[in-house]
User: Which sequence fits this backbone?
């Protein structure tokens, strides 16, 4: 038995150095994501037991607003990842430290200004109207918003450590921070169910504090032990590199902004059209089928910096072979999605009981959405990794413009309910499953010209 295990390990670690790194990251990420999935599934019934489903729906909607503020990063995190991957590939560590220091300083200044504006305008905000919540919750929701956004702005800077880990092809370590903070939050919320009355503010505090604790520990550890030679320093800020970071970041910014409109407004729109209770229904179904995409991301996310390195070193054969293997994996996950769909009713009942009833058509539309989205990510990881972003940015911008009219058409004219919102998301994201494969083949065959190469 021991001999067989040794042979398996030896076989697993054979191959191209980049492929071996990918395998180790995938195995590590799988274990971490599995842990994260278990924690996230446990959080749903615990939160529902602590709050009622209406207040839980309000909480989910509040967290959706956070994604809108992430665009103030103007794509600098993704831009930093690509530039760092290039620097690491060429072993230019001084350049890497310049990119890290410049990004940290710029982002700190940007977020400081955004935070000042946000808190200064709070007296003008009526969160009960924004969230379609009862008027008597106005003061409570204001306090929750102040707490959540305050911690969120701090996380902007602290989360850059994940970008550095991803750029260094250590995605398993980067993936650990999120699930571990959720685990800490799970412990805090479980304690709240035993010692405190239902409170949206206490629930928000449990999530926020757990995230900050984990990120502070991660920053302290990695910059002391692993990345001491590229840790941010004011003395390594270089103005001439700002243009490079922002130039690349602008394309990522347009992509992120368009993606926010298409993918992250759903909770808000559901709350406005149908009420907070429907948000809970949608999110439970979304969480179930997102399992497929999470499994797929475990494999595809480490490819982003790996593709950057391979492209810099002109290793086209490795890129082709890797994309073919990922496509075969997508086919297998399609069958898994169908299995989940067939047995979704039983899974929901075992998971949340009879507290929330999810229609089959809602599950079907979300399953289709994730299948198409994951298919596109096969090619998006390569395109993002080599920074050929213009076509993607323009396509998603068109999709974002189409999203709201499509939503109005499906929801108000055709009366399709929440399913109409998901159909709008699928149509608006046409780039992933139509144009991205075309651009990939043009680039990999060397026939791309004009906008396809920008």
Assistant:
């Amino acid at each position: 038995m021991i001999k067989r295990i040794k042979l398996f390990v030896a076989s697993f670690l054979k191959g191209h150095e980049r492929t071996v790194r990918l395998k180790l990251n995938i195995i590590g990420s799988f274990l971490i994501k599995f842990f994260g999935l278990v924690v996230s599934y446990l959080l749903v019934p615990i939160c529902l037991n602590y709050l009622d489903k209406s207040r839980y729906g309000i909480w989910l909607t509040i967290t959706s607003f956070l994604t809108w503020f992430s665009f103030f990063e103007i794509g600098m995190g993704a831009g930093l990842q690509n530039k760092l991957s290039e620097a690491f590939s060429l072993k230019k560590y001084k350049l890497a430290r310049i990119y890290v220091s410049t990004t940290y300083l710029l982002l700190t200044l940007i977020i400081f200004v955004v935070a000042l504006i946000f808190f200064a305008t709070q007296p003008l905000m009526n969160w009960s109207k924004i969230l379609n919540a009862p008027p008597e919750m106005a003061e409570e929701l204001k306090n929750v918003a102040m707490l959540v956004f305050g911690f969120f702005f701090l996380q902007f800077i602290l989360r850059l450590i994940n970008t550095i880990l991803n750029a260094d092809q250590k995605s398993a370590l980067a993936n650990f921070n999120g699930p571990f903070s959720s685990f800490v939050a799970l412990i805090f919320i479980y304690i709240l169910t035993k010692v405190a009355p239902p409170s949206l503010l206490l629930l928000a505090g449990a999530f926020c504090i757990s995230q900050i604790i984990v990120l502070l520990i991660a920053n302290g550890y990695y910059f002391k032990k692993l990345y001491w030679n590229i840790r941010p320093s004011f003395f390594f800020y270089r103005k001439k590199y700002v243009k490079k970071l922002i130039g690349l970041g602008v394309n990522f910014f347009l992509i992120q902004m368009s993606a926010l409109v298409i993918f992250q407004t759903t909770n808000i729109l559901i709350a406005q059209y149908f009420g907070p209770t429907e948000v809970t229904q949608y999110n439970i179904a979304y969480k179930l089928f997102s399992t497929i995409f999470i499994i797929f991301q475990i494999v595809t996310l480490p490819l982003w910096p790996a593709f950057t390195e391979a492209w810099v070193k002109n290793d086209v054969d490795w890129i082709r072979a890797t994309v073919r293997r990922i496509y075969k994996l997508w086919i297998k996950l399609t069958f898994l999605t169908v299995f989940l769909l067939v047995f979704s009713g039983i899974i929901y009942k075992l998971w949340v009981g009879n507290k929330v009833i999810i229609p089959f058509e809602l599950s079907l539309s979300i399953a289709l959405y994730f299948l198409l989205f994951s298919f596109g990510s096969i090619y998006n990881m390569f395109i993002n990794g080599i920074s050929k972003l213009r076509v993607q940015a323009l396509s998603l911008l068109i999709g974002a413009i189409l999203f709201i009219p499509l939503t109005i058409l499906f929801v108000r004219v055709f009366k399709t309910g929440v399913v109409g919102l998901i159909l709008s998301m699928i149509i608006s994201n046409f780039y992933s499953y139509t144009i991205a494969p075309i651009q990939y083949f043009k680039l990999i065959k060397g026939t791309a010209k004009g906008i396809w190469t920008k």
User: Anything to note?
Assistant: Confidence is low (pLDDT under 50) at residues 5-9.
